[in-house]
Design brief:
Length: 195
């Protein structure tokens, strides 16, 4: 079943509007100054975050919006804005909870970062390799964000709460910020012919 058909199927089962505008959708959320911790929860707290730190005001999509998650992106930034290795290569797992169901359970993420190992999704096989040169000087980007492409289509229906959890054993996330982004296909409100 394609992601478009799966989203239409879930929306119809829930009685959600089916006349929304199809779109590429990215949801993101930031946690500032996370420090050293055994867990992070994204898409739970929105208080005090700017438009550049999140594009939601609650952990639910509006009544006329829904989304299929195709990939998950995690990044850790220093206070100066430089990319750091997410969680300092600690063993970490990722879980996604939609409503009261855990739809992704304890997915290990440390293999998809930096130049320390093979990415599961084969998207980042050159992480840590040569990315260009400037005046004869090689540039080497070893601190890459974690990106995981999902093989199954995870649906976030309208008006259903969701969150992303990272669990570890006291991973070091620093004093800057960590960001989680969910990207995929979605439907947003469409006014139709009324405008």
């Amino acid at each position: 079943m394609s992601q478009i058909n799966k989203l239409a199927y879930v929306d119809s089962k829930l009685g959600a509007p089916s006349d929304g505008q199809q779109t590429t959708r990215i949801l993101f959320n930031t946690i500032t100054n996370p420090g050293t911790t055994s867990g992070l929860v994204f898409f739970k707290t929105f208080q005090g975050l700017t438009n550049g730190q999140t594009n939601l005001v609650q952990n639910k999509l509006d009544a006329s919006e829904s989304m299929v998650i195709k990939s998950i992106w995690l990044a850790q930034y220093s206070t100066a804005g430089f990319l750091n290795i997410f969680g300092d290569l600690s063993q970490q797992t990722l879980s996604i909870i939609v409503g009261n169901q855990q739809v992704v359970k304890s997915l290990p993420i440390q293999f998809n970062q930096g130049d320390n190992g093979q990415a599961f999704d084969r998207l980042h096989t050159n992480a840590g390799g040569l990315v260009g040169s400037l005046s004869g000087t090689n540039l080497d980007q070893t601190n890459m964000p974690v990106e995981i492409r999902l093989l199954t289509d995870i649906v976030i229906p309208p008006q259903v709460s969701f969150e992303v959890r990272i669990d570890s054993t006291n991973a070091v996330y620093g004093t800057g910020a960590v960001v989680c982004a969910l990207s995929g296909y979605g439907k947003i409100f469409s006014a139709g012919n009324t405008f």
